[in-house]
Amino acid sequence: MLAPASRDVVIVGSHLDTQPTGGRFDGIYGVLAGLLAVQALQDRAVAQPGRARRNLAVANWTNEEGARFQPSLTGSSVFAGTLTLEQAYALRDGDGISLGDALAAIDYRGSSPLDLQPIRYVELHVEQGDRLERAAADIAAVSSAWAARKISVVFEGEASHTGPMPMASRRDAMRAAARAIEALYDEVERENAGAHASAARISVFPNSPNVVAARVQVWFEVRHEDEAVVLAIGNRFLERIERESASLGVQISIAADERRGTALLDSAGVDVVCGVVRDLGLKALTLQTVAGHDALAIQKRIPASLIFVPSRDGLSHNPREFTDPEALDKGYAVLVETLWRMVTAES
Amino acid sequence: MLAPASRDVVIVGSHLDTQPTGGRFDGIYGVLAGLLAVQALQDRAVAQPGRARRNLAVANWTNEEGARFQPSLTGSSVFAGTLTLEQAYALRDGDGISLGDALAAIDYRGSSPLDLQPIRYVELHVEQGDRLERAAADIAAVSSAWAARKISVVFEGEASHTGPMPMASRRDAMRAAARAIEALYDEVERENAGAHASAARISVFPNSPNVVAARVQVWFEVRHEDEAVVLAIGNRFLERIERESASLGVQISIAADERRGTALLDSAGVDVVCGVVRDLGLKALTLQTVAGHDALAIQKRIPASLIFVPSRDGLSHNPREFTDPEALDKGYAVLVETLWRMVTAES
To answer: Are A34 and A13 in contact (CB under 8 A)?
Structure first.
C-alpha cells in the first residue's frame, strides 16, 4: 500500500475481455498499463516517503464488451450500483448459459468485498476512432460520452416451405428483419444529424435454407451526442418497422431497449490529465467518446477519468486494431503522472 | 421377394430426414407407406401366385431436405449418378462436420450394393402446397417440376466498432446482405411472373452486437416453372447486389450456384396413377411440383412417379404441417394399387 494510513483508493483499470476477433489493445492496454503504473508508483512512493496520501488498486472489469452477455459494462455497472450482482449473474449468453455459472466455471465467481474506499477511477484506453490521428495529437482527455440506444427486436413470422408456399401466404421473419435493417440506416440518413447506427448481430430460427424463417432477432444500435436525436431516431424506427413488418404478416416485439444518456466525466479529472500532458510536452485534445467505457459506468458512483491514445485508421473491434508502441508509451507516461498527482494531491 | 425369378425391382420410398421443425409428414409418410405397401403386396403375391413379375424394395434417401448439408436430394442424386459418393461424403455442415463422418458416427455409412436392377421408382408425399385442397381433390399425379436456382452469396466487409467508426468508413457486410435480401424480392416482383423466392439461412461473423459484421453468407432461392425466368431473375439479382454491395465497400462472392432445370416425370407413370385413382373412385389432379423431391433426382436414371395427398392450408416445413388420416389412407390405397400394377404389368 502506498499510504497505509489512508482508507482511500484510486482505482486504475479497464477490461481484459474482447470482441470475438479482438483487437489486442481495446481494454487490455489499460489493465496492463495500470499494473505497471501501480508498480512504478509503489517504487516512487518508497523513494519519496510521506508524499502518497491515498492508495492505488487495479481493476479488470468483467464483460465490458457485451460480446457474449448483454448488456455490456457489466462489472463496472455492478460496482457503480446501477446493476445488482444478482441481475449480472442472471444474464444469459446465446446458448442460455448464465454469467454467474460461466464465472463459477472458471473460478472467477468471487465474493471478497473491497476493504478500501474508492474515491476516483482512471482508465487508459485506445481511442477506437480517428480524431486523434487526424489532429496529430498524442492524448485525449475524454470529457463526455455520446448517448446510445440499443434495441433488440424479435420478428415473429411462421415457418413454411420456401418452395411451394404461395408468396402471399408467407410470414417471413427474415424478410421483415432485412427490411428493418435498411429502415434503420434510412432513418439515420433522413435525420441527417451525423448519428451512428448498426445492426451487427442476428439470430435466425430455424435458419435452414428451405424454411421461411419463423423467428429472427436483431440487435440494433443508434448513437449520437444528443440524446434527443437518439430517442427520436429510435422511436421513428420502431414505429416504421412495426408497420412494415405487419404488412408482411410479421409481428415485432422489443426484447431489450437499453438507453444510455449522454454522460459527463469528472471535469477536475480532465484538468489533471490536460495539465500532465502539457507538462510532459505532449499534445492533447479534449474529446467526446462515442464508444461505451467502464469509466462511464463508474462515473455514476465516483469521479472517473478516461484517457485515449490514437488508434491507427480509427480501426477497432478488428484483429488489425493497432497503436504504435511510442504512442502507447506516451499514454503510459500520462497515466503514471496523472495517478501520482491524484494520490499525492492535498485534496 | 415377390418374383424370385426376376432381377427387376420397383423401388418405393421417400426420406426420413426433416427440417429442424419437421413437419411429421414430409418424407416420413412416403417411407412408412412404402413399408406397409410392400408388406401388403407380399401377402397379395402369395395369394395370387405367378402374378408378380418384378420385385419391390423400400428406400429411405439420405438428406433429401438439405437442412444440415447442402445441396439437398443427396442420397437420391448419388443413386442417380449425378453426384458421386465421394462428393456426397465430402459435404460439410455449418460446423464443418462431413456427411461421411456424420453417417459413420451413427453407423449408417454402408457399402452394400443393391443386387437387383432398379427399373422404376414411386414416391408418395404430402403436397406442401394448397392446390389439391383448393380443388377439393384427393390425389395429384405429379407430371413435372419447377426450375430452381439456389445461390449462396458471401458478403465480405471489415470488422470495426459499431460506435466510433465513422459511418462512411464502414464496410458493413450485414447491411449489404440485408439490402440484397430486399433486392431479391424486388427483382421477383419486377419480373411479375409469379416466381417464388426466399432468403432463409444466414451466417454472420463475428455476430457480436458491437462489431460491424465482417462476413455474412446468405442462402437465396428462386423458383419458377420456366427455367429462363429463374435464370434471368438470378442474373439480374447478382448484378444488382454486386453493384449495391460495392457501394458499401463490401465484396460479394458466390459460394454456390445450383441450378435445377424444369424436370418431366415419367408420363407412363402419371397414366398408371391416374388410372388407379379413377378406378378407386377418387378425384385426381395432374400437378407440377414446386418443391424438390427425390423422385426428381431419380428420374434422371429410371422412370419415376410422384404422388401427392393434400396438405392442410398448404403449410409445410412447420410443426403444424398436417394431412387428415382419411386423406393419408387414400394416398396409401393409390400407392398400393399403383405398385401392384407396376410389378404385375406385362411390360
So the answer is: yes
Question: Chain B: nearest CA to A260, how far in angstroms?
Answer: 13
Task: Give the DSSP letter string of B95-150.
Answer: TS-BHHHHHHHTT----PPP-SEEEEEEEEEE--SSHHHHHT-SEEEEEEE-EEEE
Q: Is A99 part of the contact surface with chain B (CB cutoff 8 Å)?
A: no
Query: B27 CB near a chain A CB, below 8 Å?
Result: no
Residue at A66 is within a domain: yes
Residues 130-159 of A with CB under 8 A from B: 130, 146, 148, 150, 152, 158-159
- List the single residue in A159, A207, A317 with the smallest CB-CB distance to B210: A317
Task: Give the pLDDT confidence score for residue A113 in this predicted structure.
Answer: 79
Chain B nearest CA to A143, separation (Å):
15
Residues in chain B closer than 8 A to A148 (CB atoms):
163
Q: Does A126 touch chain B (CB under 8 A)?
A: no
Q: Do A268 and A125 have their domain in common?
A: yes
Q: Which residues on adjacent β-strands are paired with residue A197?
A: A222
Inform me whether the pLDDT recorded for A173 exceeds 90.
yes
Residue B138, in any domain of the structure: yes
Q: In whole angstroms, give the CA distance from residue A160 to residue B85.
A: 31
| Structural domain of B24 | 8-146+262-344
Per residue of chain B (347 residues), what is the pLDDT tens digit?
899 899 999 999 999 999 998 899 999 999 999 999 999 999 999 999 999 999 999 999 999 999 999 999 999 999 999 999 999 999 999 899 999 999 999 999 987 788 899 999 999 999 999 999 999 999 999 999 999 999 999 999 999 999 999 999 999 999 999 999 999 999 999 999 999 999 999 999 999 999 999 999 999 999 999 999 999 999 999 999 999 999 999 999 999 999 999 999 999 999 999 999 999 999 999 999 999 999 999 999 999 999 999 999 999 999 999 999 999 999 999 999 999 999 999 97
Asked if residue B142 and residue B28 are part of one domain, the reply reads yes
Q: Is A161 on the interface with B (CB under 8 A)?
A: yes
Q: Could you tell me if B13 and B28 are in contact, meaning their C-beta atoms sit under 8 angstroms apart?
A: no
Q: Which of B128, B198, B204 sits opposite A212 (nearest CB)?
A: B198
State whether A212 and B202 contact (CB < 8 Å). Answer: no
B34 and B104 assigned to the same domain: yes
Is the ipTM value over 0.85, yes or no?
A: yes
User: What is the CATH number for B242?
Assistant: 3.30.70.360
**What's the farthest any 2 CA atoms get from each other in chain A?**
83
Strand partners, B9: B55, B118
Total number of domains in chain A: 2
Cβ contact, residue pair A67, B210, below 8 Å:
yes
CA distance A225 to A261: 9
State the nearest Cα–Cα gap between B16 and chain A, in angstroms.
16
- B279 & B294 share domain: yes
Residue from the list B201, B214, B318 with its beta carbon closest to the beta carbon of A209: B201
